[in-house]
Amino acid sequence: MEQTESRLTKPEAMIFDMDGTLFMTETLLLPAYHRMFDQLREEKLYMGETPPEHVILGCLGMLLDDIWKKVIPDASEAARQRANELLLELQLEDLQKHHSKLYPGVLETLTELNKRDVKLFVASNGLEHYVKGVARAHQIFPLFEGLYSAGEYETASKVDLVKLLLDTHHIHNAWMVGDRSSDVEAGKKNGQTVIGCAYAGFGNGQELEGSDRLIADFTELLKLYDHATAD
Question: What InterPro entries does the entry give (predicted)?
Fold first, then answer.
């Protein structure tokens, strides 16, 4: 996988994807995913077997409409809409039970970056209540200046979502930190540095091609920042 080895400069802000970057999505998603399909069958909206877990995990980072087209391509629009509602409802319920997890070192690293006066944001293709619910449940919500989600702002792509964030906060130099090709695209098309997170493993081998740096552990981000040069 190719990385461009341009010299890193200290950013005024860092923009994080949520699933597969800050949050171990599978710890919340998979139990809710199986219960969701049980409920869809009970409501007679979907009568097939539950698609394999790797199918939904491989879709993480996509917009919800695109996810259901891949997971249940032959389902009705009513079934897909109900899947959206149920999955959010079940995940928000499970968040309160404290069974889900952040990646190791996320809270500590974000706290240290905050102490260094780096402005922290989230840009996610997920739903607003999900993104904010995860951040609140894991005590990282107060560390962010803004949590931007496609669900709240109705953006067509993460490129658009990140542009909106940058424009709103007048940010010129940011690091986009994420684990999917949509994060790389969002950073690069907005002229920003991209730090690819290679630890989640939800995508394929080409997923992070074009990143300026790859990290195998979230805590490496602080070292990258500390060793970056002042602009």
Answer: HAD-like_hydrolase_sf, HAD-like_sf, HAD_2, HAD_sf, PGP-like_dom2
pLDDT higher than 90, residue 113: yes
Banded pLDDT at 58 (limits 50, 70, 90): confident
Separation between Cα atoms, residue 130 and residue 60, nearest integer Å = 14
Q: How far apart are CA 206 and CA 8, in angstroms?
A: 22
Other C-beta atoms closer than 10 Å to the C-beta of 125 total: 26
CATH of the domain at 136: 3.40.50.1000
Q: CA separation (Å) from 41 to 7, 59, 72, 182, 208?
A: 53, 22, 13, 32, 37
Cα separation, 159 vs 60, whole angstroms: 16
Q: Which of 95, 121, 155 is the last residue of a domain?
A: 95
Q: Is 201 exposed, middle or buried (0-12, 13-18, 19+ CB in 10 A)?
A: exposed
- Residue 127 has φ and ψ, to the nearest 5°, of -80, 150
Q: What percent of the chain has pLDDT over 70?
A: 96
pLDDT at 16: 98
* Residue 89 backbone dihedrals phi, psi, to 5 degrees: -60, -45
Domain with 197 in it: 13-24+101-227
Exposed / middle / buried, residue 49 (Cβ in 10 Å: 0-12, 13-18, 19+): exposed
CA distance to 91, 96, 165, 184, 201, per residue, from 162 (Å):
25, 29, 5, 11, 23
CA distances from 26 to 17, 21, 23, 159, 200 (A): 15, 12, 9, 25, 10
